[in-house]
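Troubleshooting entry. The earlier prediction with copper (II) ion gave an output that would not parse, so I re-checked the input for stray whitespace and re-submitted. Clean input:
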Amino acid sequence: MRKSMLLLGALLITMIALVLCEAAGPSLSGEVIDGIRVVKVTAMQYKFNPDPVIVKKGEKVRLVVTSADVEHGLSITEFNVAVVIPALKTVTVEFTPDKAGTFRIFCSVYCGSGHSMMQGKLIVNEN
Ligand SMILES: [Cu+2]
């Protein structure tokens, strides 16, 4: 009797924990400053960090992109984002994602042998 109660309790706690995790979902990138989601992104041979960048549909996004090495590009075709980041410089670009889904972030400036593999993901969550 006592043992089954303990088991039931453990099961209940597990279920509550699972529900809480589900509700939290994957956390959004960056922080909201004056209503704009500001996300710092580093471009480097041959990746973007963070990857994925997770934002919310309808919320304005500001990407503050810094190149850690050579000149790179950051493009997201679906949201008309296309910037060039000079070597070791920082460039800012803003857009408001108007559709949810997963989109490709890619480097648009030839930056070395791994250039064609330099891509990341933008995940836009439904509100
Ligand atoms: Cu490149």
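This one parsed fine. Helices lie at 2-24.
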